[in-house]
Amino acid sequence: MDRRKFLAASGTVAAGAAASGFGGQYLQDKRFSVNTSAVKLNTKKVTTPKLPQGAEITDIPGLSPFYTPNSNFYRVDTALSVPEISPGSWHLRVHGMVDKPLTISFDDLMRRPMIDHDVTLTCVSEPVGGGYVGNARWQGALLADLLREAGIKRDAQQIVMRDVNGMNLGVAVDPVMDGRKSLLAIGMNGQPLPTEHGFPVRVVVPGLYGYVSACKWVVDMELTTFGAFDAYWSQRGWSQQAPIKTESRIDTPAGGTSVRAGTVTVAGVAWAQHRGIEAVEVGIDGHWHQATLAKQDTIDTWRQWYYRWPATAGKHTLQVRSTDKAGHTQTSAKSKPEPNGATGYHTVQVTAT
Residue 256 sits in a domain of what CATH number? Predict the structure, then answer.
């Protein structure tokens, strides 16, 4: 089935859809039988960067928090029942176009050097202004280090990652090995991974849409070529490379609401993972104004922004666009998510009284 039907059938059920009847309630009842708290994050051996002062805005009501709480983080699952894997039974096999195939256990992984790294994840099905995006501090071991130990053969082009149910994602080798902090993640926002977010181990690759990069419950990695294997979503017409587009969203005021005439704070988030956000502009009835940005954390995270709008009485159209650090500004051209991400300006209508 196509991706939107698939999301309706599985991901939407699992994405916190409390209104989705049997499926949502079944997941709520079943997902916590694995004791995630038994995993103790090894904070003494973790490199933990400090969040730069000014990188987080906390005093604007309605603005997305810099770190998305685990309970509110978006979900797109590939199974109607969340996999339950005990750390003692988990193993990761690395094979295919490598010099030295290897298999590691969870204990092996926990003994490896660990880092904390802030990364914003985005689903390719994120519509302009939608909610399939979230930011977290992930803890894990560098995936590139493990792959170097296996010895990637020169002609290998993609890593086919499989979860415990056999669902496969295909990510290009180059972005995983180019120096960005791609992780075998075991922690999320200072806690062991929640079951629904991939416990005990998931993959986090900054800068790529989740359908190629964010394999949850990962147990297998096969090095191969794009010609030799078409991953699940590529078979259905989605892009193989999947870099995340430069995007932005208005969080407040919400569309269709009324505000008091006078100074109104327009605020939201903007993201261009692994490029970083350079500027955000707010459009008021077709006239563009420079927004104030929170400081950049890493180029792998979103940035909060705000603009103090002197609102006059009447109906108004608000828009937002961002420019990344590579100099690319969002296009106003509207496109659907397929095959490689939606485009257009997030637009809301408000009335000032």
Answer: 2.60.40.650
If you average pLDDT over every residue of the chain, what do you get? 90
Q: Report if residue 242 sits inside a domain.
A: no
Predicted pLDDT of residue 140: 97
Are 207 and 136 within 8 A, CB to CB?
no
- Reported in sequence order, the residue ranges of 129-240 that DSSP labels E, i.e. its strands, are 133-142, 158-163, 168-172, 183-188, 191-192, 202-204, 218-224
Does residue 26 contact residue 17 with C-beta atoms inside 8 Å?
no
251 and 127 within one domain: no
Q: How would residue 27 be classed by pLDDT, with cut points 50, 70 and 90?
A: very low
- What 3-state DSSP class applies to 7? helix
Q: Is residue 161's pLDDT more than 80?
A: yes
In a domain, residue 16? The reply is yes
Beta bridge partners of 263: 310
Residues in contact with 20: Cβ distance below 8 Å, sequence separation at least 6, in sequence order? 12, 13
How does residue 90 score in pLDDT terms, banded at 50, 70 and 90? very high
Which domain, by its residues, includes 124?
Answer: 3-235
